[in-house]
Amino acid sequence: MGNSKSGAVSKEILEDLKLNTKFSETELVQWYENFKKQCPTGRITREEFQSIYSKFFPESEANTYAQHVFRSFDTNDDGMLDFKEYIIALHMTSTGKTTRKLEWAFSLFDVDKNGYITKSEVKEICTAIFKLIPKDELAKLPDDENTAEKRAEKLWKFFDKGDNDRVAEGEFVKGVLDNDVALRLIQYEPLK
Ligand SMILES: [Ca+2]
Ligand SMILES: [Ca+2]
């Protein structure tokens, strides 16, 4: 441990994260040390996040999707990810609990953060997802989901809504949970 006070994670944040995530205090302290090493300022900017994210998708255009992911993680809207947002993000996206993951997916699709998803927001995210998919994989997609529009149409049908309706978080989670096709359509998981 260093002797500088600013180097340690604050007790308040630690308590909060212990309550709200599955991580233990030891894990959190360790995460924090890694975070500070990678990110000495204690903040990740949108640009830094995009460049980290793009490394995972060397064969496709990940910037648009990365921007949406960043927006969903940046809960206080200040254009930066701090340690707390980073840990909550890690928790939501890595946890085995599907409901938690779907709550995060909802915030990803809720582009204007108004608490509802519209069909045009679904299209917007599907378009971003499509840019993640490498060309050779695109060619193998089924006929009814081989464009962003078709994918959005197919996904929207699962919510049983009209074109101008909107989907609340509970409806989104319910529509996707226990539905393998919908679950697959809301995300892109690289093959391998
Ligand atoms: Ca923030
Ligand atoms: Ca919305």
TrEMBL record:
GO terms for biological process: cone photoresponse recovery. CDD domains: EFh. May be involved in the calcium-dependent regulation of rhodopsin phosphorylation. Binds three calcium ions. This is Putative recoverin-like. One of its GO terms (molecular function) is calcium ion binding. Belongs to the recoverin family. Keywords: Calcium, Lipoprotein, Metal-binding, Myristate, Repeat. It comes from Scophthalmus maximus. The gene is LOC118292269. PANTHER family: CALCIUM BINDING PROTEINS, VISININ. Residues 61-96, 97-132 form the EF-hand domain.
